[in-house]
Design a protein that fits this description.
Mean pLDDT: 86
Number of domains: 3
CATH topology of the largest domain: Beta-lactamase
Largest sheet: 5 strands, mixed
Number of strands: 21
CATH architecture of the largest domain: 3-Layer(aba) Sandwich
Number of helices: 20
């Protein structure tokens, strides 16, 4: 047995065959040298190397082909999103309101620091909002500690470039609100992937469910409408310096909220820097005694119940005396007014008498159907219950008729107004847009369609020659009702120099056209506006909230497709609005 046989014996037959072939090749080199064929020897060696490389490349190619065609990862889906991931929030036209962005958490490990005090000083300088006391406590712990989260890539890079020992980062889910304070109360905010307020909380489940590849959740608001609303509300705040303010725009046919603003506002990117008062959505979460804008409900009730018509006469020449209460009118006009004039003159006495004619049971039934006795049905968790009187006494009925003795949210008012101006159908307002061809929620009938048409006419009358003339916009057929409610000061309705008013204006346009056509509500409320030269030294809604609403309407009408129709009557100068108020009631 040869040496080769001894060496190859332990191997398999294939292994022994390969070994013998190699031996043959090597002996081939020896035979070539023995025959003095050096050139053949070199060629044989080169050929052998080429064969080895060729075999290697063929093997790699076959492996790559197999991986490309038969690998189980070929059709694998992307890795699931982070459990905290959320879909983008957009307006009705796809403009981004909120989106997930990369964020980082900052950690410190004092065990890796030779001089912790130097690291502490550098971090405090790099992150001015960081608590020095908190950081000192974490560095004294002796273990790795989480310091702060939500760092942007830029902030992380700035700290990373300091090359601080013991400082590290971990990626985490972050939420960014690119419009900052814009529509902040409506959009809301989230923490750690969970909605806390506004639409972020209202649609938390939907935002989490649609967090996959490019998920989008649209709101009903239109950024153009929202922008005009906020801009004009900001101008009113600058001019009249109220304590707070609210604005809303609603499509009354569909119930879609196109704009909602609350002032003061905040930046949802920096929620820890704002107090609770600033972050309150006053449109949904604050209640007010609304004043004469409640007369819309009172007249709708009286007309629909058959108690009165627009031509019914009311004696308003003398104050209305009730037990412990005397109701006055601010506008000392004619002693006898039709119901239409009660509305356009904003007579508290006339409204109170209509309420008393209806009685407590009828008023409670209608006001409940208008949604005034319960929190507004809304996806917004902020929607707050009203403050109601304990009993429906005559005093309460008379006071509620002109907007006192009850405190409601602007969202409640807007939902009820939408029913009155949309043919009498009450439906919840929505923050989700209706798709093409999609019909609004069925709703429930609260007044007759004929009553709705009458109320639209009365609203227009009030803007043509009543307290709402400052809201009229050429060719847009605006209707509206002012409301100036004297606020409680130390438990009493204060008049004179210590008085404070809630100035409101509820507008609807266009007031003509079919009842089932698109029609828009604009509601503006200024809480305790201050006297200025522009409003003739008074703080009534006729000179504060009404012109603000008119400017909003003028700006948004083109976005909403409302066409101007200018008639000869539109060119006739309007009378000056009387300084209406609904708070002249002694108790």
């Amino acid at each position: 047995m040869t040496v080769a046989d001894v060496i190859s014996a332990p191997f398999s037959p294939i292994g022994r065959w390969v070994f013998r072939r190699l031996q043959w090749v090597e002996h081939g080199y020896e035979r070539a040298r023995a025959s003095d064929h050096a050139e053949g020897d070199s060629r044989l060696r080169i050929f052998f190397v080429l064969v080895l490389f060729g075999a290697g490349f063929v093997t790699l190619g076959l492996g790559a082909t197999r991986a490309a065609l038969f690998s189980p990862y070929l059709h694998a889906e992307f890795a699931p999103a982070s459990p905290d991931a959320r879909a983008e929030l957009t307006d009705r036209d796809g403009r981004v309101l909120a989106l997930d962005v990369p964020r980082y958490g900052l950690y410190v490990d004092p065990r890796q620091m030779a001089f912790p005090q130097n690291v502490e000083a550098a971090l405090i300088k790099a992150l001015p909002g960081l608590s020095a006391a908190k950081l000192s406590r974490l560095l004294a712990s002796g273990d790795q500690q989480y310091v702060v989260g939500g760092l942007t890539p830029e902030a992380r890079d700035a700290i990373h470039n300091l090359a601080l020992p013991g400082v590290s980062f971990e990626e985490e889910t972050g939420r960014d609100y690119p419009l900052q304070t814009f529509a902040a109360h409506l959009i809301g905010y989230s923490r750690d992937g969970v909605g806390v307020a506004g639409a972020e909380r209202a649609f938390n489940g939907l935002l989490r469910a649609d967090d996959g590849a490019g998920g989008l959740v649209a709101l009903s608001i239109d950024l153009r409408v929202q922008g005009a609303l906020e801009n004009e509300l900001d101008s009113a705040v600058t001019e009249f310096q109220p304590d707070d303010a609210v604005g809303m725009v609603v499509n009354v046919r569909t119930g879609e909220i196109l704009g909602m603003a609350s002032w003061p506002t905040f930046d949802p990117n920096k929620v820890d820097g704002f107090d609770r008062n600033t972050m309150t959505n006053r449109a949904a979460g604050e209640v007010y005694e609304p004043g004469s804008v409640m007369k819309i409900f009172t007249l709708a009730m009286g007309i629909d119940a058959g108690i009165a018509t627009p031509d019914t006469l009311f004696d308003v020449g003398q104050p209305l005396k009730l037990k412990g209460q005397t109701i006055h009118d601010f506008d000392h006009g004619a002693p006898v007014l039709t119901l239409r004039e009660v509305f356009t003159h904003s007579s508290n006495i006339g409204a109170a008498k209509l309420g008393l004619m209806a009685g407590a049971d009828t008023m409670a039934r209608y006001f409940r159907s208008f949604g005034l006795f319960n929190a507004a049905p809304s996806a917004l968790i902020e929607s707050t219950r009203p403050i109601l009187p304990a009993r429906m006494t005559d005093n309460v009925v008379a006071s509620m008729a002109f907007g006192h003795a009850i405190a409601v949210t602007p969202l409640q008012l807007a939902t009820g107004y939408a029913a009155i101006f949309d043919g009498g159908i009450y439906r919840p307002l929505t923050l989700r847009p209706l798709g093409p061809g999609q019909q609004p929620a069925p709703g429930r009938r609260v007044i007759a369609a004929s009553t709705s048409a009458t109320m639209l006419g009365l609203m227009r009358d009030n803007v043509v020659d009543g307290t709402g003339t400052q809201a009229d916009e050429l060719g847009l057929r605006v209707g509206g009702k002012t409301g100036t409610a004297t606020k409680l000061v130390d438990g009493h309705y204060a008049e004179g120099k210590n008085s404070a008013n809630l100035a409101s204006f509820a507008a609807v346009f266009p007031t003509d056209g079919p009842l089932d056509g698109d029609r828009y509500l604009v509601l503006v409320m200024l809480d305790a506006p201050k006297k200025t030269a522009a409003d003739r030294g008074v703080t009534t809604a006729a000179f504060t909230a009404a012109p603000t609403a008119g400017r909003v309407i003028n700006r948004i009408a083109p976005f909403l497709g409302v066409r101007r129709v200018i008639t000869a009557a539109d060119l006739v100068p309007k009378p000056a609005s009387p300084p209406e108020t609904s708070g002249a009631s002694e108790r």
